[in-house]
Design a protein that fits this description.
The chain contains 11 helices and 10 strands. The chain has about 375 residues and is α+β, with helices and mostly antiparallel strands. A 6-stranded mixed β-barrel has the order 2-3-8-5-7-6. A hairpin with a 5-residue loop joins strand 6 and strand 7. Helix 2 packs antiparallel against helix 8, helix 2 crosses helix 10 and helix 10 runs antiparallel to helix 11.
């Protein structure tokens, strides 16, 4: 071992001489890596929180812009309503009813395969949606939505699709179809990226049912009473006001978010386990260094203070790296006109960042503290 007395003109305290003559075993870059692995995972979780909040808010906002109906007829069990219900409502004088069929379409060309997944679609009748639903058509017209003619969202239109384009597709029952685009619309969130003629959607849907019937009707008088009587005659139907329908949509989004939070919770659990595992490995390999520092005269408070400062620096670096990765991955999310700007839940993000800081510090200090509490006599014969 190097004789420190020959290096310094003035004698130093034993602990200081040890720190000078025994630099840390790990290179600075490796130690920084061990420090940021733990908190950067937590910061990436913050990106997931932002994505969940943004998607939910975009769906709620777009649905509120799209639905102009005064009332909405929905299924109590959530399975859908027979098309005859919408037809019966439409026969009531002074009442307009637009049934909406939830289905799916597989697009086969123009780089629109969606990685093998289907595109959500809806079946609508343009004659009845004129006063009940506003899709925000930018190009073309929904009046031409007949036969095999369809409308597409801005998301699909970004791939070079425009009114007059021809798309090769398979419908929900795998029937091949050649679809001609007649319109491009904005308000797709919560409905689908393809709008088919309602008759075509009903013929090929896996379940030929209306997911909802959007209604414009007087609030009082014979029409309102007839609508109420019709609703009572269909045991599976529930008549909601526009506000109730939007509230139910918000509640459904929150329920879906809770299910996705299960995945986030698993990510947090894995991060905690990895943090303590990494901290235990680092402390175990630095056991000799820490014990020799104590034997050289450093107090427990000095050792813990040095480790705290080191953990603080690496934790800050980890949070910075993780934040940069999350921001880069979400850089283009706010520019999507369909999704809208990022929804930043300050409370949730602050909780995630605080958890990252706590995990970075505790995951290093607790294992090191356990090593520091070991009996020094057990290492009295340790050699450098």
């Amino acid at each position: 071992m190097t004789n420190c007395a020959l290096i310094h003109e003035q004698p130093l305290p034993v602990a200081q001489r040890y720190c000078i003559c025994h630099p840390p075993r790990y290179p600075a870059v490796w130690r920084l890596l061990l420090g940021y692995v733990k908190p950067h995972r937590w910061t990436l979780i913050a990106g997931g929180v932002l994505s969940l909040a943004t998607a939910q808010r975009a769906t709620e906002r777009t649905t509120a812009q799209r639905v102009h109906a005064d009332q909405v007829l929905v299924s109590r069990a959530g399975g859908g309503l027979p098309p005859s219900v919408a037809a019966a409502v439409a026969r009531i004088p002074r009442v307009t009813a637009a049934g909406s069929v939830s289905t799916e379409v597989y697009l086969l060309d123009r780089h629109l395969t969606n990685e093998g997944d289907s595109w959500d679609a809806a079946g609508l009748d343009p004659a009845t949606t004129r006063t009940t639903l506003e899709l925000g058509v930018d190009r073309g017209s929904l009046a031409d939505l007949t036969g095999n003619r369809v409308a597409v969202s801005e998301t699909i239109a970004r791939h070079g699709v425009r009114p007059g384009s021809v798309l090769h597709a398979r419908l929900a029952d795998a029937t091949p179809a050649v679809l001609r685009v007649v319109a491009v619309y904005r308000h797709a969130n919560g409905m689908g990226d393809v709008v088919l003629p309602r008759a075509l959607a009903l013929r090929h849907a896996q379940a030929p049912l209306d997911s909802a019937v959007f209604i414009r009707a007087p609030q009082h008088g014979p029409a309102a009473r007839a609508l109420g009587a019709l609703t009572r005659s269909v045991p599976t139907a529930a008549l909601e006001s526009r506000g109730q329908y939007l509230d139910d949509l918000r509640t459904q989004g929150q329920d879906n978010a809770r299910a996705q939070w299960v995945v986030v919770a698993l990510m947090i659990l894995v991060s905690v386990m990895a943090a303590f595992n990494t901290g235990a490995m680092a402390a175990s390999e630095r056991r000799r260094e820490l014990v020799l520092a104590r034997l050289a005269g450093a107090t427990r408070a000095q050792v813990i203070g040095a480790l705290t400062l080191e953990s603080l620096l690496t934790t800050v670096a980890g949070i910075a790296v993780g934040s940069a990765v999350a921001l880069i991955s979400l850089a283009g999310a706010g520019s999507d006109p369909a999704g809208g700007p990022l929804a930043v839940g300050l409370g949730q993000v602050a909780l995630v960042l605080a958890g990252a800081a706590a995990l970075g510090l505790v995951g290093t200090l607790v294992p090191a503290g356990l090593v520091g509490r070991a009996r020094l006599t057990a290492f009295a014969g340790a050699r450098d």
